[in-house]
């Protein structure tokens, strides 16, 4: 293999940059020395150059495996604009188009060839007749059922190393916890790959979590502090993207809904308008954001709880790519957890999905620095608290919550542990709705023992009791609340229970059910 190792001049000539970002040069040097590597770098960190530059420096062709045909085209166009010969091959092309590419490969006219894992069969003749310089596997987390975006077709990629033992493999991803990383290198048959993990700390993003009550009012208040600043509101469903956008329009904001149900053209128009600052606010499902390069997104709101930390990190990471201060706000709702659990239980790897959801929930419930929790998920440990999350800025204030806890726990005992959180709160507060009256709960001893505490605050207290292990939610028994042995110590031995003051959100009239 001939090598052009003047890396800086290639960086300047083809990419227009004077210096490498952290880790890029080390990774590239490893690749040029024929080593296998696994690169974990946040979105926008500069992964592409780690294989694009070696592709230019090495003789032969670099095969890039990438999951999305749509993104492939953009990348190839971008490379061609920079004077780099690149192409993609996939099932959407005619035979003639594919042959044209084979011819170019034969004539050494292509340095980078992109393909989806499903299209590997198209590469057979290239594999047999061509010098392969490097194999790059983008979005490598897709190989692992531990990852958050598992694609079965990725699992066949392990054969590449067996077939080309002397060709270096570089696997890249923006999100992979430790278990996923180990799974990636094992499945790709590159167990000795050097793992490069760039820092995931995006200290310019403020991290905030609020209870998911009166979300629209909270959003409007938030937006009043972000006049004319671009941002994204992520919602769980298409319907809610539209509902949120409609409400914001009514309030006079420049907002629009975006989801996979819109036509291709409509979506790309919206993207362009957003990038050009003609639209301020996108209310989107997670379909929005992949491949969008807008550096001045100033805030991201999660209307619903994301289903895992990887998704959450990736979505908030779309804010502040220019390095300037940006705000993120996550609404944490108990009803979302219940719904996401139901989704997770229906997936083929439900245990993994449920464990990931649990981590997400723990993050939202956290009483310690959130950034520490977020980074530790990715295997990175902060020495000091970050100072830029809501917990750091407003540390929780504990008080003696024993009496509150006793009231809740004894009410649950008297309801024979047969009711979910909403009914428990209604009974404690003496609500007069159908469920309560029909079941005769107005006659039990704990009915109406604490109406002075608002519905929302009761909800927060009970969630704290769940998180501290005094209560459990029986997800398979209509989400009823069950007492644990810890609860019995509070009820019968007068054990003390510290609680924290509820987050300040506007207090509403009692509700019948949880939002
Ligand atoms: P990723 O694939 O990790 O999300 P990209 O490879 O798309 O990130 O890079 C993100 C942005 O950073 C791109 O606009 C890219 O051109 C730019 N970039 C990459 N490396 C450098 C560098 N060494 N100096 C300046 N900009 C860079
Ligand atoms: Zn913090």
TrEMBL record:
Residues 28-194 form the Helicase ATP-binding domain. The keyword DNA damage applies. Coiled coil: none annotated. Its cofactor is Zn(2+); Mg(2+). It comes from the Bacteria. The chain holds residues 1 to 515 of 700 of the full protein. This is DNA helicase RecQ. It catalyses: Couples ATP hydrolysis with the unwinding of duplex DNA by translocating in the 3'-5' direction. Keywords: ATP-binding, DNA damage, DNA recombination, DNA repair, DNA-binding, Helicase, Hydrolase, Isomerase, Metal-binding, Nucleotide-binding, Zinc. GO terms for molecular function: helicase activity. Belongs to the helicase family. RecQ subfamily. Its EC number is 5.6.2.4.
């Amino acid at each position: 293999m001939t090598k052009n190792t003047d890396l800086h001049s290639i960086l300047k000539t083809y990419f227009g940059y004077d210096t490498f970002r952290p880790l890029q040069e080390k990774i590239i040097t490893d690749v040029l020395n024929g080593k296998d590597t696994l690169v974990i770098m946040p979105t926008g960190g500069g992964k592409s150059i780690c294989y694009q530059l070696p592709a230019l420096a090495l003789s032969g062709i670099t095969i890039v495996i990438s999951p999305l045909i749509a993104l492939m085209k953009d990348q190839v166009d971008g490379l061609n604009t920079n004077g780099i010969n690149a192409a993609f091959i996939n099932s959407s092309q005619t035979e003639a188009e594919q042959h044209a590419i084979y011819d170019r490969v034969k004539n050494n006219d292509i340095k980078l060839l992109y393909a989806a894992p499903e299209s590997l069969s198209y590469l057979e003749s290239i594999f047999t007749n061509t010098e392969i310089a490097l194999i790059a596997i983008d979005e490598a987390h897709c190989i692992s059922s531990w990852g958050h975006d598992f694609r079965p077709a990725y699992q066949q990629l392990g054969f590449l190393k067996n077939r080309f033992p002397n060709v270096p493999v570089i696997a890249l991803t923006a999100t992979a916890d430790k278990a996923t990383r180990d799974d990636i290198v094992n499945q790709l048959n590159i167990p000795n790959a050097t793992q490069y993990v760039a820092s995931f700390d995006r200290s310019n993003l403020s991290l905030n979590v609020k209870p998911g009550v009166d979300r629209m009012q909270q959003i409007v208040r938030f937006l009043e502090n972000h006049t004319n600043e671009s941002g994204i509101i992520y919602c769980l469903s298409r319907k809610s993207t539209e509902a949120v956008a409609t409400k914001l329009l009514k309030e006079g904001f420049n907002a629009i809904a975006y989801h996979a149900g819109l036509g291709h053209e409509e979506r790309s128009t919206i993207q362009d308008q957003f990038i050009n600052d003609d639209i301020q606010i996108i209310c989107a499902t997670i379909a929005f954001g992949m491949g969008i390069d807008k550096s001045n997104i100033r805030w991201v709101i999660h209307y619903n709880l994301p289903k895992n930390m990887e998704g959450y990190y990736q979505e908030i990471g779309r804010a502040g790519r220019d390095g300037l201060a940006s705000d993120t706000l996550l609404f944490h709702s108990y009803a979302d957890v219940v719904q996401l659990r139901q989704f997770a239980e229906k997936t083929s790897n439900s245990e993994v999905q449920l464990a990931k959801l649990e981590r997400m929930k723990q993050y939202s419930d956290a009483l310690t620095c959130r950034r520490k929790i977020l980074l530790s998920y990715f295997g990175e440990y902060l020495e000091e608290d970050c100072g830029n999350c809501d917990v750091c800025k407003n540390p929780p204030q504990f008080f003696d919550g024993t009496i509150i806890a006793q009231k809740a726990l004894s009410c649950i005992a008297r309801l024979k542990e047969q009711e979910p959180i909403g009914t428990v709160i209604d009974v404690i507060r003496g609500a007069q709705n159908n469920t309560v009256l029909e079941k005769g709960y107005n006659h039990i001893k704990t009915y109406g023992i604490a109406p002075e505490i608002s519905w929302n605050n009761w909800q927060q207290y009970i969630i704290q009791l769940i998180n501290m292990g005094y209560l459990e939610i029986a997800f398979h028994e209509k989400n009823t609340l069950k007492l644990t042995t810890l609860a019995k110590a509070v009820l019968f031995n007068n054990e003390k229970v510290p609680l924290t003051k509820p987050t300040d959100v506007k207090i509403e009239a009692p509700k019948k059910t949880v939002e």
